[in-house]
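Collaborator request, handled under Task 6.
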Amino acid sequence: MVSSKKLTQMCVTFWVVVLFCQSVQSHLQVGFYRNSCRRAESIVRGAVRHAIHQDRGVAAGLIRMHFHDCFVRGCEGSVLLDSTSSNKAEKDSPANFPSLRGFEVIDDAKARLEAECQGVVSCADILAFAARDSFDLTGGIDYDVPAGRRDGIVSLASETFSNLPPPTFNVDQLTQRFSDKGLTQEEMVTLSGAHTIGDSQCTSFTDRLYNFSGTNSQDPSLDSKYAASLRKSCPQDSTDPNLELPMDTRTPTISDVNYYKDILANRGLFTSDQTLLTNPATAREVKSNARSSSVWKRKFAAGMVKMGQIEVLTGNKGEIRANCRKEIPPARALWLLPLFSAVTSIWSATDMVRE
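Structure tokens returned to the collaborator:
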């Protein structure tokens, strides 16, 4: 039988190891789950591939969801949390509802992961992997995603208004909002290329058709023939959320540079798209991206990796949700934290020794 003194020494040693290893793993790293859940990334890719096979439009939703997650409280999965009777969550903000889609894909990936390695892979990491896979599976490129994010426990609809850039922003406002998140103006132009896939509700751009800047006329920077076609599909004063049009008129389900070519033809759908031509520096970036699909894709991948590190929670911060829509009950979270931190820290430390 172990003496009380020996037991105390063992407990102290255990917690020293845990705390040390937590400091070692308090950063993101490629291959974070190689030992704790070796098939994690392939499982997520399988769920995304299945979803895109059913509906190619969901790819744009997953990329946008990752962006909306990272810009509010950082990349910690708060956009996935459901509202409660006492709190309106981010996903139910006008900036996200009803336009944000793909939540069921994250649910499916999480369920598959929980069946294989329970309580290991965070919802925030699932979303980062899913965004990468969505880009790759729609004609983009594959890229390594550093992982190790943990999930946040707070989600407030009110925080979306001061963090997410609306489609009415001009180039200076966009530059400032991205700068607030540690992203450069060039990266802003590059990441705006996500609009190369997906649809938009008419309500996001009808002001450009009927009452631009309170003039009761269309935006003069909008190609007249394009504007006429948009008016046919988006009647004035319509609030029907089911009225949607592709953001890229040429290849709306393929990740390519036609988005930039549309802007050069004055066929950018949003004010925030067409405004990129009003600044010499951003206009040069638009022209550069339009010339080379391969260069833009590499820049986009790099931009996504950088964006995916905004204000992440690592180490013993946050939690690993069992259900991406709900935070872990406080009592259970406190009980699980030491065990999870010890196990994942030891795995991470083992990787460092091997490397």
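The cover message to the collaborator said: "Confidence is low (pLDDT under 50) at residues 11-25, 349-355. The two ends are 39 Å apart (CA to CA). Please let us know whether this matches your experimental observations."
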